[in-house]
User: Fold this.
Amino acid sequence: MSESEPTPASEAKKHCVFIGLAMVLLVMAVYYSPSIEELLSGWYIILTHPSKLDFDGLAHPGNFGSAFLNAGSMLLAILLVYKLTKTKLEGPQIAAALIVVGFGFYGKNLLNIWFPVAGVFIHAVMQKKPLSSVTALAFFATAIAPSFSVIAFGHTGITGFTWHGYLLGTVFGVFSGVLVSMLSAYLPKIHQGYTLFNAGYAAGLVGIFYFVLLHKFDLGYYAFPYDYYYDFVSGENAVLGPALFIIFAYLIIIGFVMGGGAGIREMVKYRSKGGNYVDKFGFAPVLINMGIMGIIPTAYVFLVGGCLNGPLFACVLTAVGFAANGVTLRSLLPTMAGVFIAAFLGGAFTGLLDGSGVLETALASVSSRGVMVSMVFSCGLAAIPGAHGTWAGIFVGFMHGILVPNTGAWHGWMSLYNNGLSLSIVATFLLPIYTRWGVEKEQV
Assistant:
């Protein structure tokens, strides 16, 4: 626990920091684009793609800048919504904003996010709740944003690109937000808060039912207007790496300038079941923690020779966001280690069986895109090592590493938080075991 109360930052200062981050992203957008015309035409491709969980926004438009434009514009839009709804920028709101920014490189865009957001707001109005109480949930619910895009831009059952498709996509998109809002209120009773990605659990369940419904009515879910299926950026670490480290440096420097140096020492050693770290430690230390939580997984990608791409941008920036709402170094490393062990052993076993070389196959496995993404997203299980210790964290990470490669097919890759679904299933499955046989560690 903190020995003294953190010095609160004003809402104006918080907004200025994240407006500054949006400006950094927009400057990168211009830097990475050959011309303004190509920047905007690439952004149009992002906006009108079905945006399923195989879409790398860095690869598909033909230039990297369009994805940065998409991410930066969404961050500004989110801040505007927070301002209009008088929402305070606390841990959940920061996490929700950064996960949208991250997935601005991998499936979300300034068009499709508003349909589930509208659904959450409609549900709040029906329940007579203030919108400020659900803004974080609304942006977490954008996990199911492809429920609009795959129908509006990826169907064939309604004769291609027509307003009928847009209308049906709008209905599906808005209703998905309503469903995620409803489910999100009840699912924590199942996993008892042991996954930070509760909206991913809800969105995954909605995605499963939407996927089978689309197939049942022959809406041509796998028809795409662009030839970009499973096309991911590779070999561009030297170009894309600096962009991430500039973001991390921005957060860390601003955090130190705002006086967060003393508080970050407490955060690094802190272990808990999660929570609003802005309220607990103060805004400035949280900014430093956010930068650190970005550096660790990015350094791992470089260490094992992995390739930065849209999915990795999404998961790294998600970890950055949740560093304000439940993730610290002490809770991230055990779950990452668990996923690493699962991938290494799986690769070694494969190499042993097919004669391709035990060590070579194991090392190739731990540097694969899917494993690296799963490893970083395992931060959503931070509550388990926080409550039950390091070995429990390693074990749940291991279980997540085994399960997550298979869950995407359940919802047809329609939910962008596929790891959130896997993490939640693991947490739900293991909770009775830990409760029955485990002893909760003292939170320090």
In short: Residues 290 and 320 are 5 Å apart (CA to CA). The two ends are 6 Å apart (CA to CA). Residues 11-216 form one domain.
